[in-house]
Design brief:
The complex is a heterodimer of chains A (about 120) and B (about 110).
Chain A (H helix, E strand, L loop, with lengths): L2 E5 L3 E2 L5 E8 L7 E7 L6 E7 L4 E3 L7 E6 L4 E6 L8 E8 L10 E4 L3 E5 L2
Chain B lengths: L3 E4 L2 E4 L5 E7 L4 E2 L4 E2 L1 E6 L6 E5 L3 E2 L7 E6 L2 E6 L8 E7 L6 E2 L3 E5 L1
Parallel strand pairs in B: 2-13
Antiparallel strand pairs in B: 1-3, 3-10, 4-5, 6-7, 6-11, 7-8, 9-10, 11-12, 11-13
The chains are: A mainly beta (about 120), B mainly beta (about 110).
């Protein structure tokens, strides 16, 4: 079964850029669609965006001006960059796989990473 | 954006009894290409990521106990746990994947009475 693992700094200063990586193991990053989702402490889930293995992306308009998702198939990884962060970006960040066969994003998130807590504070 | 509204916000059910959680979308999530509703249910236990239970509104994910079932179509959906077990204590979320931005309900906290 494919496994996902998020990695990156747990503390980011306000106005700086949050950078996280999701490593895909026991499976190939190719032929699937990959997503980032976040959850502020004690709150609900917010979809950030997704990326096809080919590199095509779709972002949440609420974050679009600050978000970049990229994929590195040679490393079996995909990444999230969120610029100009504020305290409102403090959350657990999850990477997840979009189910199905990778050619249609209209699928549920069937595999999730354990999540990584990112705190925005000076 | 499609707004997903769950009810109730919290629910206490006795062990062995039925638990029912509702989810309403602000517009239909019926995907005409396959005539399926783009609606998923997730279970989240403290300190854990969400776990997919149900997709296409009523298809149980592999390995999910058959006491979990999903129903509904269009804008109104239900997650039913037929006989509550202690390990089912969690927060449950519905999610639409019909239109981006994909959106989740606010969550329903399920406890033992």
């Amino acid at each position: 079964q494919v496994q996902l693992q998020e990695s990156g700094p747990g503390l980011v200063k306000p106005s700086e850029t949050l950078s996280l990586t999701c490593t895909v193991s026991d499976g190939s990053i190719s032929s699937y669609i990959w997503s980032w989702i976040r959850q502020p402490p004690g709150k609900g889930l917010e979809w950030i965006g997704y990326i096809f293995y080919s590199g095509s992306t779709n972002y949440n308009p609420s974050l679009k001006s600050r978000v970049t998702i990229s994929v590195d198939t040679s490393k079996n990884q995909f990444s999230l960059k969120l610029s100009s962060v504020t305290a409102a970006d403090t959350a657990v960040y999850y990477c997840a796989r979009v189910g199905g066969n990778g050619d249609n994003p209209r699928e549920a998130f069937d595999v999730w990473g354990q999540g990584t807590m990112v705190t925005v504070s000076s | 954006d499609i707004v997903m509204t769950q009810s109730p916000d919290s629910l206490a059910v006795s062990l062995g009894e039925r638990a029912t959680i509702n989810c309403k979308s602000s517009q239909s999530v019926l995907y005409s290409s396959n005539n399926q509703n783009c609606l998923a249910w997730y279970q989240q236990k403290p300190g854990q990521p969400p776990k997919l239970l149900i997709y296409w509104a009523s298809t149980r994910e592999s390995g999910v106990p058959d006491r979990f079932s999903g129903s509904g179509s269009g804008t109104d959906f239900t997650l039913t746990i037929s006989s509550l077990q202690a390990e089912d204590v969690a927060v449950y979320y519905c999610q639409q994947y019909y239109l981006t931005p994909y959106t989740f309900g606010q969550g329903t906290k399920l406890e033992i009475k």
